[in-house]
Design goal:
- By secondary structure, the protein is of the alpha+beta class.
- It has one domain.
- Helix content is 31%, strand content 14%.
- It is globular, with a radius of gyration of 16 Å.
Amino acid sequence: MRVPDFATHYYLPGRKPFQNLSDLSEEAVLAVMSDLNEMRRQGVQHRPFGRGYIAWRRLTETRLREVFLASGGQPERAAPHYFCLGTSTWFEGLALGMRSLSLPLSDLPPEQTSFTLVDSFSAMGFGPQFGYPATAVPERAAVYPISRLERVLERYGMPDVTPRADYTSFADELVESFVEVQLWTDAPVQHFLDPET
């Protein structure tokens, strides 16, 4: 098995990359989520943002950070920037005209980069509180330092799920379709975050 040597960040057309809901005030989060849900109603993007989404996200990111810290990670951010290992057909189809950018894994500092074998929402185990099933597979509930990537994937393999065209099985595909990479520092992506770029 060939392990990808890059990670890809997906973002909506007409928006800048690395715009993290967790960096916004509560009022701004609600406004952005309302906009995203309207886009879903119009069929422009498929991702649902229900009433419990931001609470689930905050619980997930808090646990994700705690587990990464316990494994020796040195996160600089409260919430990470998100990538998929390699590319993801599932993410590419989440919105019309989905944009992406890729970075070599060698550009991501090991002390500030982690990964989960599935989407971190599933991995951190809060799904049942929000009406979604829990993962019963221990390796899926772990947060790994990026330095262990090849060893972990040699043991458990890469996910390979083709999404349904209408994303009706959103939750199942979310869990099964990609390895998530979390970047806990702004440094490698700072030029994308600067207001003038």
